[in-house]
Amino acid sequence: MKDINTSAFAIEVVDLVKKFGNFTANDHLTFNVRRGEIFGFLGANGAGKTTAIKILCGLMAPTSGQVVVAGYNVMTHPELVKQNIGYMSQKFSLYEDLTIFENIRLYGAIYGLTANEIRQRSDTILRKLGLLKDRSRLIKTLSLGWKQKLAFSVAMVHHPKIVFLDEPTSGVDPVTRRQFWELIYEAAADGITIFVTTHYLDEAEYCDRVTVMVDGHIKALDTPAKLKKQFNVDTMNEVFLNLTR
Ligand SMILES: Nc1ncnc2c1ncn2[C@@H]1O[C@H](COP(=O)(O)OP(=O)(O)OP(=O)(O)O)[C@@H](O)[C@H]1O
């Protein structure tokens, strides 16, 4: 077993392959994510992003390759991986018929927090989001933007080392997306590694480094500034179009 303290990397992926029958969804992916980094994972629909995230989170076994997350091999120690990460899926996992507090309590309990820890962390989350007075509101009464911000906070209730966000801001307006990114920056400033997929190319500019997946392959991996320089363009949107068309 590998110890996280010996590596500068939160995520190490070597030659990751995932096949569904004859179809290759992830084709020999190799990359590292540094600790504390905001790492953007871009690609068109069907490029293989969600498949890779599920493997990195220990939710799906790779066909071959080596994947070490938070210091643990996802094949041999998926439970230790899960304890050390947070995951916010596309269909984020809040329970609509439970209240805000009940959702936080549920996820806190799943991660083995004590009642006291759950109360403290719930207060911290609600204060930060300005939702202290709303703790008894049902999730289904919240706007999509609030659900997303809460789902992100709940995904970090157990203070994970890494948090995986699969299209966390899809479907909301630019102001709400910007607010969501403020939460991401705060988490990164606290030392949490952020692995995020998005279809919004303006959000790619907020990442420390970005990888662009095309048909299961990594086509590019660098800082937004270097990618724009490489393609001699002004925006990540143009970088993306250059790589995917
Ligand atoms: N369980 C599965 N069985 C068969 N094929 C699958 C399975 N899961 C994903 N795929 C296929 O693998 C490819 C990659 O899917 P994936 O969901 O990883 O893409 P994505 O980049 O996350 O796309 P999107 O942006 O639409 O979420 C797609 O062609 C998809 O149909």
UniProtKB/TrEMBL annotation:
Record-level Gene Ontology MF annotations: ATP binding; ATP hydrolysis activity
SUPFAM superfamilies associated with the record: P-loop containing nucleoside triphosphate hydrolases
Alphabetical UniProt keywords: ATP-binding, Nucleotide-binding
Pfam family name, one: ABC_tran
SMART domains on file: AAA (SM00382)
Record-linked InterPro entries: AAA+_ATPase, ABC_transporter-like_ATP-bd, ABC_transporter-like_CS, P-loop_NTPase
Domain ABC transporter: 11-240
Protein name (database record): ABC-2 type transport system ATP-binding protein
Organism, as annotated: Thermophagus xiamenensis
